[in-house]
């Protein structure tokens, strides 16, 4: 039986439909339009594309968005000054600084400069700490999107063995902590593998749910996946392909054609986790706007 394809676009549309109602309520009852500020430094084509998609999604949802584009030569002091300005802006509820940043800028310092209550990306140490101990707070968008993909597709992680391949602060660590929590949509047993894991294929084969977030094209092969597993591919990698119109194509961290026949379900690249990341960014911004009512 062929694997069920977990369609991130379809799930994202369902969540955005729910968000649209919440946005309308904020506008009509409280005269608040959720606002997101995006900050783009330099001319990285992938970053430009991501920011463009995020702003487009805001406009489609009836939210307010503004983009601040800075040259790659901008100083850390100038970027911190912009963040301080956005922290004070009443019409801005969420702030997103697109990563990566140029070498002259300390990314962690920038992340920590954003007010935790405007941290739409969910990367501030305060929000990460709340995630770790199970307190409410903004969840990092990609891990949160993965969790929602599993829930909406009917693959409850409760009681399952989840293996996460990758230990980044953006995906690997937070998704492991999200699925460990003693709450709905979680309660999994989680193992984290990484580049120094000695017997990675053997551990990966134990997974009921395998989450690939290692940042290496088609790293996960069929021999690393057990029959009937659910596979979520977080990776987005450009590989050269002279036959493609742009000279490259996008692939995930999973060798899709080889792995899919073994799976109960699998997410594609593109069209899997990507749309969910943007949707959860919108979700966090709307929640920040709602929290602003309470002062």
From TrEMBL:
Tetrahydrofolate dehydrogenase/cyclohydrolase catalytic domain span: 6-121
Residue ranges of every copy of the Tetrahydrofolate dehydrogenase/cyclohydrolase NAD(P)-binding domain listed in the record: 140-291
Annotated residues for binding of NADP(+): 166-168, 236
Catalytic activity, reaction form: (6R)-5,10-methenyltetrahydrofolate + H2O = (6R)-10-formyltetrahydrofolate + H(+); (6R)-5,10-methylene-5,6,7,8-tetrahydrofolate + NADP(+) = (6R)-5,10-methenyltetrahydrofolate + NADPH
Its EC number(s): 1.5.1.5, 3.5.4.9
Metabolic or biological pathway, per its Swiss-Prot or TrEMBL entry: One-carbon metabolism; tetrahydrofolate interconversion
Record-linked InterPro entries: Aminoacid_DH-like_N_sf, NAD(P)-bd_dom_sf, THF_DH/CycHdrlase, THF_DH/CycHdrlase_cat_dom, THF_DH/CycHdrlase_CS, THF_DH/CycHdrlase_NAD-bd_dom
Molecular function as annotated in GO: methenyltetrahydrofolate cyclohydrolase activity; methylenetetrahydrofolate dehydrogenase (NADP+) activity
Keywords from the UniProt entry: Amino-acid biosynthesis, Histidine biosynthesis, Hydrolase, Methionine biosynthesis, Multifunctional enzyme, NADP, One-carbon metabolism, Oxidoreductase, Purine biosynthesis
GO BP terms: L-histidine biosynthetic process; methionine biosynthetic process; purine nucleotide biosynthetic process; tetrahydrofolate interconversion
Gene Ontology cellular component annotations, sorted alphabetically: cytosol
Gene3D superfamilies, A to Z: Leucine Dehydrogenase, chain A, domain 1 (3.40.50.10860), NAD(P)-binding Rossmann-like Domain (3.40.50.720)
Claim: Cell inner membrane is one of the keywords in the record: no
Similarity annotation: Belongs to the tetrahydrofolate dehydrogenase/cyclohydrolase family.
Subunit and partners: Homodimer.
Function text: Catalyzes the oxidation of 5,10-methylenetetrahydrofolate to 5,10-methenyltetrahydrofolate and then the hydrolysis of 5,10-methenyltetrahydrofolate to 10-formyltetrahydrofolate.
PANTHER family: C-1-TETRAHYDROFOLATE SYNTHASE, CYTOPLASMIC, C-1-TETRAHYDROFOLATE SYNTHASE, CYTOPLASMIC-RELATED
Protein name as it appears in the record: Bifunctional protein FolD
Organism: Candidatus Moduliflexus flocculans
Gene behind the chain: folD
């Amino acid at each position: 039986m062929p694997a069920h394809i977990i369609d991130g676009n379809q799930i994202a549309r369902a969540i955005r439909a729910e968000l649209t109602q919440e946005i309308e309520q904020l506008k009509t009852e409280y005269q608040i339009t959720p606002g997101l500020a995006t900050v783009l430094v330099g001319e990285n084509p992938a970053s430009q594309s991501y920011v463009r998609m995020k702003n487009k999604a805001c406009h489609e949802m009836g939210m307010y968005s503004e983009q601040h584009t800075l040259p790659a030569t901008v100083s850390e002091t100038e970027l911190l000054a912009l963040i301080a300005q956005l922290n004070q802006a009443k019409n801005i509820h969420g702030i997103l600084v697109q990563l990566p940043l140029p070498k002259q800028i300390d990314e962690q310092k920038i992340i920590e400069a954003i007010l935790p209550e405007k941290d739409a990306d969910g990367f501030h140490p305060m929000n990460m700490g709340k995630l770790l101990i199970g307190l409410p707070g903004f969840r990092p968008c990609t891990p949160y999107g993965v969790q929602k993909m599993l829930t909406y597709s009917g693959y409850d992680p409760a009681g399952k063995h989840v293996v996460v391949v990758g230990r980044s602060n953006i995906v690997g660590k937070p998704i492991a902590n999200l699925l460990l929590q003693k709450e709905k949509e979680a309660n999994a047993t989680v193992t984290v593998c990484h580049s120094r894991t000695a017997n990675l294929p053997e551990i990966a084969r134990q997974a009921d749910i395998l989450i690939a977030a290692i940042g290496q094209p088609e790293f996960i092969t069929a021999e690393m996946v057990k029959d009937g597993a659910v596979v979520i591919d977080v990776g987005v990698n450009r590989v050269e392909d002279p036959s493609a119109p742009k000279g490259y194509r996008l692939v995930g961290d999973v060798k899709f054609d080889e792995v899919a026949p073994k799976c109960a379900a699998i997410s594609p690249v593109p069209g899997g986790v990507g749309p969910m990341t943007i949707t959860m960014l919108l979700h966090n911004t709307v929640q920040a706007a709602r929290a602003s009512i309470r002062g």
